[in-house]
Amino acid sequence: MSRISLSRFLIEAQRTEGNLPPELRLLIETVARACKAISHSVNKGALAGVLGEAGSGNVQGEAQKKLDVIANDILLEANEWGGSLAAMASEEMELPYSIPENYPRGRYLLLFDPLDGSSNIDVNISVGTIFSVLECPPGDVAPSEADFLQSGRRQVAAGYTVYGPQTMLVLTFGHGVHGFTLDREQGSFVLTHPDMRIPASTKEFAINMSNQRHWEAPVQRYVGELLAGTTGPLGKDYNMRWVASMVAEVHRILVRGGVFMYPKDARDPSKPGKLRLMYEGNPMAFIVEQAGGAATNGRMPILDIQPSKLHERVAIFLGSREEVERVTAYHAAD
Ligand code: P6P
User: Fold this and answer.
1) pTM to 2 decimals?
2) For residue 242, which atom of ligand 1 is closest to its CA?
3) DSSP letter (8 states) at residue 277
4) How far away, in angstroms, is 281 Cα from ligand 1 center?
5) Are strands 275-276 and 157-163 parallel, antiparallel or unpaired?
6) Is 0.90 exceeded by the ipTM?
7) What are the distances in angstroms from CA 27 to CA 61, 82, 156?
8) Cα–Cα distance for residue pair 157/290, rounded to 1 Å
9) Are 288 and 231 in contact (CB under 8 A)?
């Protein structure tokens, strides 16, 4: 089978399906190139002295790892001069980054979590980069936070790169989900997983069970039924996974099905969940829905949520459609 590189795939998408504007194609190529550089740093680890804490904190109040900062800088530097963007927003930065005056400004907004799951870096467990692309509202002034506050339905592209045993880039433009594996010898991403689909049913769930006492009743009910297996109403035994790296969990679900949950819990009623809507929930929900799965906050599709803050959090239930619909129905019945 002839190898299809990411570049060839994107050029064909631009030419045939007409759904990929040249400026967006170039943006994706640039993000992919940045992810290759991040992969190189992640893979060198201790050999490059990039493990451990950066000695700084981010807007979320979390201690930053050296690689969080490195990955963020790589994405900013790769994208600021390309001419596709009006601004960027990152989990690691309180405010959006407007493209400097001396660079050409484009029509897209890029949002990213530069290195999700970074608490796993020092123990050599898979981590990843998550990104989302929106169109910038027209106007000739520098974009503000308000320009980013668009629902997930308005994304024009989304993807992630998982830095695991293989480095894989998974993409959607709203026409299916496609996976590319990094060929380190050639230095290029190669199409290896065309048109990824999530099985509608599953026997695998992912949740951090140590938070169980803090969950709301519908989640207690649903997880209780999963644990009851054949002795309960679901009539089958389930297996559990928890990598504590969302990108790794979502990738597993895309490849073999499953349901991932990070519910709201009672510890902080002001927070609807731990994960962030704009650069974790929305891109992953776009990918999951495009692969035939479902993604809700327990009560509505994540992609329909109208954001009010750039770093707002969201509860997440995503993956195999049958399971997400079940736990969402339990919320509705509550
Ligand atoms: P916990 C990583 O910090 C992350 O943002 C996601 O990648 C992951 O799914 C979740 O948080 C893990 O959270 O509470 O289990 O450490």
Assistant:
1) 0.96
2) 15
3) I
4) 12
5) unpaired
6) yes
7) 30, 7, 12
8) 11
9) no
